[in-house]
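Before we proceed, please read the two lines closing this message. Report back on whether the C-alpha cells fit the sequence:
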Amino acid sequence: MMRRSVLASTRYLVCALAFCFGLTLQGQAQTTVELSFDDARAAAQQAALSGNFELARDLAAALLQADPDDRAALIVLAAVEPRLGRPDQGRKAGARAWRLATTDAQKYEAARLTALAAANEDRLTLSQVWLRRAATVAPNDAALAQTQADYGGLRTLNPWRTNIQLSFSPSSNVNGGSDDLYNVIDGLPFVGVLSGDARALSGVTATADLRFSYRLAENAHARTEIAGRFYSRQVLLSDAARALAPDSENGDFGATLVEVGLGHTRALGQGLAMADFDIGAHWSGGDLSTPFARLSLAAQYPVTDQLTGSAGLAFEQRWIGDTGQAGDTIETLSAGLTYRFDSGAQLGGTFELRDTASETGNQRNTAASLQMTYAPAQQIGPAEMLFTLGASHSDYPDYAIILPVPGGRQDTTQFASAEFAFVDFDYAGFAPVVTLGAQRSDSNVSRFDRSAFSIRFGFRSTF
C-alpha cells in the first residue's frame, strides 16, 4: 500500500505521486512529491469530477488532517461520501462547509450537496430543509428554479408532508363581542345590559396552524394517509379592552384545536373521490369544551377543461367537555364550482348548508352560506392577490333569553377579505402575506350585532 504523510510545514501536503493521479506502479519504488495545499485541493476536486471517489476522499481527509476547517476539502467529502456508501458522513461534511462558507456561492454549493446527501440517507424532510436554505442563496433565477423543482420532486417522494402557518392580527373585535351596550330583542319589552366581556374587545390575535400528513400507501389510482392538525389562537387584549372588561384575562379568549384522522383519495375516471375520518377536541379559554368525531366525503370532477365542480358531505358528533355526554350533531352539505380563465385567472364559488341538532335549544340552528373567491392571473407589483366575498344566514328557531325569542333568532353576516402574498420578497420559499378583513353581523338579538376589522400578517410557502 502506498505511503502518505502530512509534512509539519503548513505550506505543503506530501502524498504519493502515483496515488494522486490514480496510477498503479507495480514493482516500482514508491515516489513522493510535495504539493501545495492549493494543488492538493485541485487534485481532490479533479478526482471527484473524474469519478475517482476513493482518491478524492483520501486527499480531502489528508487536507482536513492538516486543517480541520478546510472548506474546499469538506465540499469534496460532501460530494463523494454518498457515492461511497456513507451519506451520513457526506451530510455532516456539507453542513460544516455551510457553516464555514463566506459567500453565497459557497453556501449554495454546500447546501445543495448536503441536501443530496440527506436524500441519499432517505432523510427527505431534512433534505427539503437544506434545499430551502439553498434557495436563500441561489446565485441566479435558473439555480432557484432548479432548487424549487428538486424540492417538488422530494415532496412527491416524501411520505411526510408538513404545513405551518403563523400569523398575528390586530383586530377591533378579538372576542366576537357585540357592538352595543344593551341587549335588545325584537318583540320583547325588556332590555339587558351587556357585560364588558360580551362587548367587542380590541387587541391582537396570534395563531399557529400546524398540519401534517404521512402517506401510508399510494399507487397510480389511490392514496391513503394519516393526517393531523394542531391549531392555537391566543389573544392579547388592548388597554382599552382591559378597561372595558377588567375581570377578563387574555387566556379567556384563547382557543385550541387538536385532531388526527385517516384519509383516502381515489381517482374515479377524470375525477377524485375523498373520504376522511377525524377525531379531536376543542379547548376554549383553556378548558376542554367539545371532543368530536367527524366523517367527511367529497368529490371533485372536471366539467370542462376550464370548469371544475366539487361536492361534499360531512357528519360530526360532538360531546360535552369530559362528561362523555353527547352534545351537538352537525351535518354539512357543500357544492362548488371553479372556473379558470384563458388568462390564468381563477374564479370560484362555494355554497354550504349546515344543520346543528342539539338538546340545547339555543344551540339548534340551520345555516346557509355563499362564498366567492377571485385570484387574478398576474401579480400586481410584488404581490399575488386573492379576493374573497361572502355572506351567511343562520336561524335559531328555539332561541330564548329568559323568554323565547319571538320567531327565534336570525343572524345575517357579510364578510370580505383581500390577501396580498409578497412572493417577490420570499425567504427560503416563504413569502410574507398581508390579509385585510372586514365582517358585519346583524341580528334580531342585538347581542349578536357585531363588526370586526382586522389586518393579518403571516407567511405562506411559495414552493
The longest strand covers residues 203-218. The radius of gyration is 31 Å. The CA atoms of residues 98 and 110 lie 5 Å apart.
